[in-house]
Amino acid sequence: MSDSETPTPTAKQSPNTLLNRFLDGIEKVGNKLPDPAVMFFGLLIIVAFVSWGLSYVDFAERHPVTGDAISITNLLASDQLTSFLTGMVNTFMTFAPLGVVLVAMLGVGVAERSGFINVGIKLMLRVTPKMLLTPMLILVAIVSHTAVDAGYVLVIPLGGVIFYAAGRHPLAGIAAAFAGVSGGFSANFVPSAIDPLLQGFTESAAQIIDPSVQLNPLNNYAFTAASSLVVVAIGWFLTDKVIEPRLKNVPIDGDQEDMPQLDDVTPQDKKAFKTAVITMLAGAALLTYLAVIDQSPLADSEGNLASVTAPIFGMIVPLIFLFFVVPGIVHGFVAKTFTNSQDVIKAMSTAMEGMAYYIVMAFFCALFIKAFGDSQLGTLLSVKGATFLASLELSGGVTMVGIVFLVAFINLFVGSSSAKWALISPILVPMLMQLGYSPDLTQAAYRVGDSSSNIITPLLPYFPLIVLYCQRYVKSTGIGTLVSMMLPYSIALLVIWSIFLVLYWTLGIPLGFGSSYAYPAAG
After folding, report:
1. N- or C-end of the chain: fewer Cβ atoms within 10 A?
2. Residue 62 carries which DSSP code?
3. Distance between CA atoms of 385 and 421, rounded to whole angstroms?
4. CA angle, corner 355, sides to 485 and 454, nearest 5?
């Protein structure tokens, strides 16, 4: 990793295989796209004019929930322009990823600048076999879904730090973690808030045909848990055999002061880290106690911790902040990297300085997503796609695979998992129930498609943030660089995960609790 020679990424000499030539082409074209902030602004303008043109077209499709005819809203109409401009500040301030990223990064910044994270990674590398580093990282990324979007702000940047500290290319670590967090979004050993959220939409759609249908929130749990192994295997192979070899000659030219230090762990570091971990465990014990006591303040009105309305889910980001800032402060003062409160505030300020570029991108991203949603273009696209698939009258198995590919395509334009399923489940679930296939199976197919294309769409709200993580190590990283890195994961997940779903179904392995493959369920 010499600094004496820093050839540009276009000069890299990766193996001259057909795959690498294809990915190099994707990277070259993608990196010619405008800066992400400019791109989002350009898309905003395009959506505005497309909405103007299509607002004069009458569509036969009806909204599956309201039953009203779908019509495109003209964003250039005077009332829409007025509403958009008067709400611009609120649109930006309420952009969900912005708050998640900034609050979490305040805590992470303290933990990083104090040395707590770096020491922890060095100690972890001592006990983790080198060959298991990739699968362990992907597994942690998958489990991070339990804490909603925590993986985007914690695990993905740590993937780069861990690989860099291990002497491997940091972009490969970021790619592996991104594949686990976002590509494996529907794979998890631990139930998360997305389970009851999707189940609620599926149950409502099923009740269109049969009002007596009741689904378990964990109706896909066994399948998603087994899928974790599939995602880890795919990510492990591609990271070590395809992505990292391709990055072999990409120079690491980031600012050295921002890189994790590779020096040895001193006795003082060990003492500080041990004290900080004890502090973190004490906090975890207190949280656990508050969660299990009668009338827990962290549970919903019915005492359910797993409910999406439970206060604990609204506390995820503040808890991330506390679980990093408190141990970070403890580690800093014990290790003498912090000597006063000003050092702590400086660590937070430095972390925010690194987020300046992301804040600019988030501003234009928030405006585009708001405009796209208001235009109803996403609604029309989703309903037209689902209606077309239903009109083909394919067999159940082919339709399931069709759902996977349809959702993967729609996901490139409509990022929200619950929003997509709210739109297309009232079409697909009843249709397949009439063919004899259960809502549980249809939902499982949806989840595979929803995860597979997350990692290649620049419209994912966190996508610009991942580009920023990469630029910490390779300054010339652009959208094309990230898309070309993640495309092999996306294609492999789409194909192999679909095959896994069909095999899983063929073998008759239960999808989850109270689930079935057939409708009506046998017995």
Report:
1. C
2. B
3. 12
4. 35
From first to last of the 523 residues of the chain, give the pLDDT tens digit.
334 333 333 444 555 677 777 777 877 877 777 877 888 899 899 999 999 999 999 998 888 767 788 899 999 999 999 999 999 999 999 887 788 888 888 988 898 889 888 888 788 877 888 889 999 999 988 888 766 677 788 889 889 988 998 889 999 999 999 999 988 888 888 777 678 778 888 998 888 888 888 888 889 999 999 999 999 999 999 999 999 999 988 898 877 776 766 667 889 999 999 999 999 999 999 999 998 888 889 888 887 776 667 888 778 788 888 988 999 999 999 999 999 999 999 999 988 887 888 888 889 988 988 898 899 888 888 888 888 887 887 776 788 899 899 889 988 887 667 778 887 888 888 888 888 889 999 999 999 998 999 898 877 888 888 998 999 899 888 888 899 999 999 999 999 999 999 999 999 999 998 899 998 865 5
393: Cα within 13 Å, side-chain hemisphere: 0
With the CA atoms of 448, 413, 390 and 421 taken in that order, what torsion angle do they form, in degrees rounded to the nearest 10? 60
Residues 346, 58: Cα–Cα separation, whole Å: 57
What distance lies between CA 341 and its chain's CA centroid? 34
- Can you give the pTM of this predicted structure? 0.78
What region, left, alpha or beta, does residue 295 occupy, with left being phi > 0 and alpha being psi -120 to 50 degrees? Answer: left
Distance from CA of residue 349 to its chain's centroid?
A: 26
Q: Say how many C-beta atoms besides its own lie within 10 A of residue 108's C-beta.
A: 26
Concatenate the DSSP letters of all residues of 359-424 into one string: HHHHHHHHHHHHHHHHHTHHHHHHHHHHHHHHHT---HHHHHHHHHHHHHHHTTT---HHHHHHHH
Q: Give 373-389 as a 3 state SS string.
A: HHHCHHHHHHHHHHHHH
Kindly report the backbone phi and psi dihedral angles of residue 218, in degrees, each rounded to the nearest multiple of 5, phi listed first.
-105, 35
Q: Hey, is 437 helix, strand or coil?
A: strand
Q: Which helix (H) or strand (E) holds 135?
A: helix 133-143
> Taking the mean position of all CA atoms in its chain, how far away is CA 193?
14
CA–CA separation, 252 and 261 (whole Å): 15
Residues 250 and 501: their CA atoms lie apart, in Å, by 37
Phi, psi of 437 (to 5 degrees): -110, 140
Token output for 169: 């290319």
